[in-house]
Amino acid sequence: MNIERAAMRGKLAEAKEKKFRLKNKFEALATAVRTQLNTALTDIEDIPMDELSPMFSDLELTWAEILALRSEIEKLERRLT
């Protein structure tokens, strides 16, 4: 039984680390999007939507991964308590 708990603790640590990295990625993407969408500095006609579109897609995928990891982490924590 201790081997199983150790494996679950390892999996939990990996999931938390991955979630941390993904949150940092999300923050960086959000900052980049915010900068590009600053209409106080850039005219609407000059906003580079061709550059922003892939960022929006990456934001959405990263967000979905974070949500999935949150569920996995909660499940592992429940099993370990």
Topology of helices and strands:
Elements: H1 2-36, H2 49-80
Helix pairs in contact: 1-2
What does this structure look like?
By secondary structure, the protein is mostly helical. It has one domain. It contains 2 helices and no strands. Helix 1 packs antiparallel against helix 2 (49-80). The chain is rod-shaped and about 60 Å long. The two termini are 14 Å apart.
In short:
This protein is 83% helix and 0% strand.
Tally of structural domains: 1
Number of strands: 0
What is the percentage of strand-forming residues?
under 5%
Averaging pLDDT over every residue, what do you get? 95
Major sheet size, sense and barrel closure: none
How many separate helices?
Answer: 2
SSE order: HH
Structural class: mainly alpha
Rg calc:
18 Å
List unreliable stretches of 5+ residues.
none
Which features characterize this protein?
mainly alpha, rod-shaped, 81 residues, single chain
